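Data availability (excerpt). The following record was deposited with the supplementary files.
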Amino acid sequence: MQMICALLVFQTPRLPQPLGDLSPWLDRLTVPREELFARLAAQPHRRFIKSHTPLDGLPIDPRATYIVVGRHPLDMAVSLWHQGNNIDRARWRRLTGQPEPAPPRPPLHDWLTGWIQEDTTAQQQMDSLPGVLWHVTDAWARRAQANIVLVHYDDLSADLAGEMRRLAGRLGITVPGETWPELVRAATFEEMRAGAERMVGPTAVLRSSAAFFRRGTSGAGREELSAGEWADYQRRAAQLAPPDLLTWLHRGVWQSRQHGD
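Predicted structure:
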């Protein structure tokens, strides 16, 4: 989504800076606040900022557009597990002043089943299942507002060009017809992975920029679970989010896999 916004703003894949510099992660703690705000204030282009904070933790300003990307929570969790393995934990602790690390995480299957059942709240752990579903539930409840846009990860995979055109319309950006093919191609997973080092730029905490773009397809979470564990997830999710939101989240490849079980 960051790359899509960059492409729409600059209307060229040849970005003037690494994507992470053009679109800083606002709630990441590795850059001092004053330095980050100074960088943003100096930007001459339309700003687009990354955040993992739910909308109820952000100032909602009518001059800004808030794009919330939803993904099947199990796929999000699998991605989170792999991204955790790609972080240089010692470097992260030094930059953020975090305490000594917890014991190594268990294998993916064991970690995922524990993640499904973890007894926590969205406020205590935003990356937990309650946290993820609270984030999307809050956005879902605001989706009729003119400056709130929900995007489904699987729609980006199935119809990238259509979703980019929809976002351009919501952002009030006009793109010349002849420019679209190049922009859409630059936003594909394959192009993002191929240009990872150039786009992400030097990073103090990732072991590999290319590994950040690991797989890009849906269904990895379901592959890890037995039928009983999948049913446990469905029961847990039903306790945490409204049915219409879960119908929206649990679709695409997930619906076809469920019908095939």
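Summary of structural features: Residues 19 and 182 are 17 Å apart (CA to CA).
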